[in-house]
Amino acid sequence: MTEIREQDAGGKGVAEVGRSQWWDVWRQFRIHRGALVGMMVFALIMLGVLAGPLVYWNDPQFVPTGRDFIKLRDMRPVYVTLWDTGAKVSWAHPLGTDNLGRDILARLLSGGQVSIAVGLTAMLLSLVIGTVVGVLAGYFQRLDGPLMRLTDLFLALPLLPLLLVAVLLFRAPLSAAFGPEGGIFVLIVTLVGITSWMQTARIVRGDVLALKEREFVLAARSIGTSPPKMILRHVLPNVLSPIMVSATLGIATAIITESALSFLGFGFPPDFPTWGKLLFDAVDRMELYPERVVWPGLAISLTVLSVNYIGDGLRDALDPRIRSH
Q1: Could you tell me if 138 and 207 are in contact, meaning their C-beta atoms sit under 8 angstroms apart?
Q2: CA 147 vs CA 6, 223, 247, 250: distances in Å
Q3: pLDDT per position as a tens digit, 150-199
Q4: So what's the pLDDT on residue 108?
């Protein structure tokens, strides 16, 4: 963005130049059909998990008792009647109920809130760490070696065993401090965030190394601009493109990691639904009720796929070499 201000020597104002730049980005993004479809799918998923629990009539935590328990447990989705007219269904529970009589659609919507919240929060944490490490390593030559060796060390770690050990060690203290759900949320977000920043750091470092030799940076340095002001005003605005792309891809990584931990039984408490937890609970009865695996698996797949397509579209749209054609 700083480079755009310096090049603006004509009659156009800075605001108009910035607006035209983002209009070019949007125009290029629209050409990527996969990115547009991914954005619409992700918007629908976000709308469903945010607004769905507010309008849907069933409580995801409600467990019937007495005769209602026998009546409501293990209900099949209503569409099963298309090939099995004798299946126990109820229009009050469109996707059926689990073995405890809890509504599956309500748990799917509620679990989506947790899974996407984990993905977004962990992505922000990894983005901050990766950007700080990448900018410092790229701008300060004396920090480049130590920070990049630290990045290589994290890349060489076996992440899944490390995550499992960390959950076992820190689950009890954090649950005692923040509650069962809050403690696991803090733990998973922290673990995913501090183990997924390395790719962002490498990408940002490469861009900063190239930016350091650009004319506008050299000119700012020649007039005595301090390194903190140089980084904040001249370097960071010009590396927003790879940061935004890394952000979209980081959401997908965080959702998959949280789902894997929950599927392995190291995630949230049993009565607290997430998409990975729903998969874990459905595995034991998958042969009798395969739909209980399909729906959370489909939700995870669609979310990750749509976010990846959005990232691809942003990468193409933010690349000035592609926008120029």
Answers
A1: yes
A2: 32, 29, 21, 21
A3: 999 988 888 888 888 888 888 888 888 888 888 888 988 998 888 889 98
A4: 92
pLDDT bin (cut points 50, 70, 90) of residue 126 is very high
CA distance 14 to 83: 64
Res. 4: pLDDT tops 90: no
| pLDDT score for 319 | 64
Degrees to nearest 5, angle at CA 260 with 94 and 161: 165
Residue 200, burial from CB neighbour count under 10 angstroms (0-12, 13-18, 19+): buried
Instruction: Report the 10 Å Cβ neighbour count for 20.
Output: 12
State the pTM of this model.
0.80
Cα 271 from Cα 181, distance rounded (Å) = 10
Are the beta carbons of 292 and 282 closer than 8 angstroms? Answer: yes
Name the residue among 213, 233, 230 with its Cα closest to residue 2.
233
52 and 110 Cβ atoms separated by less than 8 Å: no
Cβ 97 vs Cβ 74: under 8 Å: yes
Using CA atoms, how far apart are residues 122 and 258, in angstroms rounded to an integer? 10
**128 CB burial (10 A radius; 0-12, 13-18, 19+):** middle
